[in-house]
Prior knowledge:
This protein is α/β, with parallel strands linked by helices.
Amino acid sequence: MRIVIPYTPARLAPRTRAWGEANGAEFRDTSADTEAYFRLLAELWRDGEAFMLVDHDIVPPPDAVQRFAACAEDVCCHPFLILGMWSAAEELGCTRFSRVLVRKYPNLVDESPGAFLGGCRRV
């Protein structure tokens, strides 16, 4: 599964970088403009393969990749701490989109920005 960490240079957390390097993640700079993150998401979607997003300040659990690989749902996410509270459903912080989903709806991101963020199965 492709693991991608969108980041801006000044905000990439050292622990996130370490986790990403240990798990073979791609680091993608999204600091160009306010649409860079969306363009990245659209690119990943158009590739038609499963992918995992990890935000620049999130450190997934050690078994996150394995649990995502075992998750049978189209969208799976791991809870993470944000502002001292556990979150997952409203954020993409640590989320995996399945190959089935991106192939079933290949134009979803391009045609309806934001509409697909309705929720995910926590793993």
